[in-house]
Recover the amino acids of this structure.
């Protein structure tokens, strides 16, 4: 039976049209875009076309797009470059307990550089309280960094409200939109976002390439020393092939975005409802409504998540327990800990994430297998359904 991929939050399969757009830049169109001859100018034109596509996806100006190696670099660039650029104004950064490690570890570094970092709690649904942000702001606050949506539990934060609060206090606002860019409608102008991180491989583009939106006029110190590429904001020879792929993925993402969102959301609900109605001890984590359209994060009482994942894999179904960046770690998910989840439920957690290439037949197959595997594992548990 054909394997079923249900881990789109970790990475997505590349769209064939993206691969086709990239192919010439691996061979015939190999020029360095910093060169003035025709080979270089051909590559430069391709990069600028990609920049326009990403700007269009975000409602930004093309000059506000800086290419990076991916979401982690973009997040680090936002935290560190802005922090040091504004150090004379203040040294206080606000974030939350459930951010991606790219944010939390960057903030930890900033704390080692005599910055003051406030890490706010979230509710059981994963939402940060606007009042908590407001109370945390001081006269030295220079940056608020809160993700658009959580990569594990799928909760979508009230970004526009947060950015409005930041703007009232003349504080810059950064969001990690790696999970939402290319899937949800984003308009950096209407949403009041000053900096935004994205990564191509999360919306059917290649791995190893991303971008950072930096609003025009934002103080900025380059994250890396080097050449004058990216308008002096990010040195290093351009990854032309990857950038072309990112640009094509951004172009494709804008095609019928609302319809794709609705289709995936409907399949997600179908899968979730089938599991909840037919399996014991299953609860949904994250906000029930303000969540990514493709995300299902479950906890199953009296079942070990690792055993569940292994059984699903034996059935040809790829899922995960949470962030792929933390795979192999023996530590419980920092996101689930922040929700106040009991250890026994954290151990029984599972994430299923759908994507553009998911079919209704696959959803039905996953639901059937999930229910069967849960019942089987409960029958083996001393606390399961046979007791």
């Amino acid at each position: 039976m054909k394997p079923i991929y249900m881990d789109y939050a970790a990475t997505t399969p590349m769209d064939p049209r993206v691969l086709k757009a990239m192919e010439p830049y691996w061979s015939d169109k190999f020029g360095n875009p910093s060169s003035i001859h025709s080979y270089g100018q051909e590559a430069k034109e391709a990069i600028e076309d990609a920049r326009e596509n990403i700007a269009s996806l975000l409602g930004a100006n093309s000059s506000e797009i800086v290419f990076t190696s991916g979401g982690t670099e973009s997040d680090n660039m936002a935290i560190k470059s802005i922090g040091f650029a504004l150090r004379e104004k203040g040294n206080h950064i606000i974030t939350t307990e459930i951010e991606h490690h790219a944010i939390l570890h960057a903030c930890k570094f900033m704390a080692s550089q005599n910055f003051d970092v406030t890490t706010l709690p979230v509710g059981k649904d994963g939402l940060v309280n606007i009042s908590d942000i407001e109370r945390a702001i001081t006269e030295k606050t220079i940056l608020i960094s809160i993700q658009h949506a959580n990569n594990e539990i799928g909760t979508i934060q009230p970004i526009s409200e947060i950015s409005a609060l930041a703007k009232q206090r003349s504080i810059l606002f950064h969001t990690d939109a790696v999970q939402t860019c290319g899937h949800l409608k984003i308009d950096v102008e209407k949403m009041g976002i000053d900096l935004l991180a994205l990564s191509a491989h999360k919306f059917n583009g290649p791995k190893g390439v991303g971008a950072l939106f930096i609003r025009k006029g934002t103080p900025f110190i380059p994250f890396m020393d080097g050449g004058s590429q990216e308008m002096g904001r990010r040195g290093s020879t351009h990854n032309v092939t990857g950038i072309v792929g990112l640009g094509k993925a951004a172009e494709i993402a804008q095609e019928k975005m609302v319809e794709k969102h609705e289709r995936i959301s409907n399949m997600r609900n179908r899968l979730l409802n089938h599991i909840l109605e037919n399996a014991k001890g299953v609860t949904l984590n994250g906000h029930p409504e303000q969540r990514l359209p493709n995300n299902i994060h479950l906890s199953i009482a009296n079942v070990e998540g690792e055993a569940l994942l292994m059984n699903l894999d034996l059935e040809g179904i790829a899922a995960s327990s949470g962030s792929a960046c933390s795979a192999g770690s023996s530590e419980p998910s920092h996101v689930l800990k922040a929700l106040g989840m009991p250890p026994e439920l954290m151990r029984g957690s599972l994430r299923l994430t759908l994507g553009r290439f998911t079919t209704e037949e696959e959803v039905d197959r996953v639901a059937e297998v999930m229910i069967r595997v849960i019942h089987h594992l409960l029958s083996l548990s001393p606390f399961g359904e046979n007791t």
Q: What stands out?
A: The CA atoms of residues 162 and 168 lie 10 Å apart. The chain has 13 helices and twelve strands. The chain has two domains: 4-12+256-380, 16-253. The two ends are 34 Å apart (CA to CA).
